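Below is a filled-in request sheet from our internal design queue. Each sheet records the structural input a requester submitted and the sequence that came back. We keep these sheets so that new team members can see what a complete request looks like end to end.

REQUESTER: design group, bay 2
PRIORITY: normal
MODE: inverse folding
CHAIN LENGTH: 326
BACKBONE (tokenized):
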């Protein structure tokens, strides 16, 4: 089975553009050459947008190349395996998302360990999820959808970008709490899944708010609810799932940087500091906000603790909902 692995090298910045303060802060021992950020998804996804936005800034700051290497397939497992096996010197890192923990929780035979196989670097950003139906569906509210699903168990289908993705497991958690039976149809990518939703070939899907926005504007999908604890800024009129009568399904997509497990702590700290600096730049925050991403940042432990808690949470959901890997 073959996968396309597009590689994009971000244009080098020049040392002359760096201010004296930045030159003084720079660690001349790292990086020593181009840094590769592995992205386990296709161009245009949240991982990819973050990696390219931050990569350009890091390239300018360091005066060296930052390569964005899209390694798609197996719900991100291919990219994760490559990163885990890479030299632990900070020159190969990975922009991971929520699927990083979810896939491993679902697939006990996954060939990477999100906790022991990596060093957490930085929790870069989050994005909200929404519950949407095809415009071909007659349901205008979430209550109408659940009522119809209960009246026709197993008759409706929902799409996801694959097993173990946030869209898959969040919908299974929703089904468990709503007491409905809607069949899962996994696709190979978010683009393929949303295309089927927009075309009316599946009834529903949970997807990032920024992905749903253009489809909703084109009247191809109807957003019925937000999955967060608060309403989405993109769809302020859509209630939360709790407000719509299905509580305890708060889920969001997160993105962060991970390095191979044996990466020295001083390199991890250097990367963490650099990413935090980039995230605080107004143009970076603005560019990411326009893509539906909310900047986070913080200490490496913040990312590490999140990965651990997500593994524990979704393992419980998978057992309770009797979700199978295949």
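RETURNED SEQUENCE:
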């Amino acid at each position: 089975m073959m996968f396309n692995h597009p590689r994009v090298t971000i244009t080098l910045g020049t040392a002359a553009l760096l201010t004296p303060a930045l030159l003084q802060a720079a660690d001349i021992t790292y990086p020593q050459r181009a840094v590769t950020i592995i992205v386990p998804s296709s161009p245009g996804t949240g991982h990819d947008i973050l990696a390219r936005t931050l990569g350009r800034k890091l390239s300018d700051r360091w005066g060296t190349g930052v390569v964005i290497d899209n390694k798609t397939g197996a719900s991100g497992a291919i990219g994760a395996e490559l990163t885990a096996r890479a030299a632990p010197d900070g020159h190969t890192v990975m922009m991971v998302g929520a699927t990083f923990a979810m896939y491993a929780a679902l697939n006990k035979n996954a060939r990477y360990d999100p906790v022991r196989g990596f060093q957490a670097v930085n929790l870069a950003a989050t994005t909200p999820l929404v519950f949407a139906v095809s415009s071909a569906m007659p349901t205008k509210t979430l209550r109408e959808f659940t009522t119809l699903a209960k009246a026709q168990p197993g008759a409706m289908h929902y799409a996801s970008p694959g097993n173990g993705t946030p869209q898959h497991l969040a919908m299974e958690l929703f089904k468990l709490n709503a007491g409905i039976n809607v069949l899962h149809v996994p696709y190979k990518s978010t683009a393929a899944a949303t295309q089927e939703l927009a075309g009316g070939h599946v009834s529903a899907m949970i997807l990032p708010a920024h992905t749903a926005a253009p489809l909703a504007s084109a009247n191809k999908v109807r957003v019925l609810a937000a999955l967060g604890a608060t309403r989405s800024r993109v769809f302020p009129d859509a209630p939360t799932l709790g407000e719509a009568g299905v509580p305890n399904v708060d889920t969001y997509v997160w993105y962060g940087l991970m390095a191979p497990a044996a990466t020295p702590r001083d390199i991890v700290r250097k990367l963490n500091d650099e990413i935090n600096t980039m995230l605080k730049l107004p143009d970076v925050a603005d560019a990411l906000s326009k893509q539906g991403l909310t900047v986070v940042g913080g200490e490496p432990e913040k990312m590490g603790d999140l990965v651990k808690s997500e593994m524990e949470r979704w393992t419980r959901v998978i057992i309770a909902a009797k979700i199978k890997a295949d």
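SHEET NOTES:
- The chain is about 40% helix and 20% strand.
- The chain has a mean pLDDT of 90.
FILED BY: M.R.
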